[in-house]
């Protein structure tokens, strides 16, 4: 919604309200409906402005949107342990996709809303790819992201990691302590246990470890992804072979995944 469109509708509302003929002919419900429409348009405009401000801030800090090439040329193959990580899909799937993400990052939210559902349907739920989530809050850009990351891990204590994951990405601008507690109750967590976990910083060390691991992989912004072959003897080990930077399109992910599935070493496990 542009400023000019919003201005036009606001003028229309004022004209309508103060026109004796229109006012006399209208019902109270019609007036209220028009007021509500203008309020929704105002909220939409504010949301767009907030998104633009966030993207501008990210660009100024050097966190650019995804480039056209999905693979980082400097990535070196290595073994990665995913022991204790948040996992979705068949533990023994041939490929493992590791995401380094920030719950207040708009590009991460876009990936979660637009690309991940397709990957889930066509690869993860089909047993071809195992999905692993790593916490990578960038506190300098998103002050509440570390607390959100810990909230997700505290929810995992009660078997609700992915439910918290989804609700956090759906509410990126509402992440106060009170908001996090509300989300915990909304997804059915035991409130006092969740609150105690969050207040204790129980998972801060794990969040910091995830960040350090990501940096060692070459992660400089979010979202970033590492793809690798699952060790056939120990599914907690992954031979990481490809790096995908940014909120790439679904088609880009498909190209990389299909290439790796085609080249999957037969009977060979990660070193």
UniProtKB/TrEMBL annotation:
Domain (Thioredoxin) ranges: 60-262
UniProt keyword list: Disulfide bond, Oxidoreductase, Redox-active center, Signal
First and last residue of the signal peptide: 1-24
Keyword Plastid assigned: no
One Pfam family this sequence matches: Thioredoxin_4
RNA-binding among keywords: no
Domain of life: Bacteria
InterPro entries per record: Thioredoxin-like_fold, Thioredoxin-like_sf, Thioredoxin_domain
Any GO MF annotation of the entry: oxidoreductase activity
The family this protein is said to belong to: Belongs to the thioredoxin family. DsbA subfamily.
Protein name per Swiss-Prot or TrEMBL: Thioredoxin domain-containing protein
Natural source organism: Elongatibacter sediminis
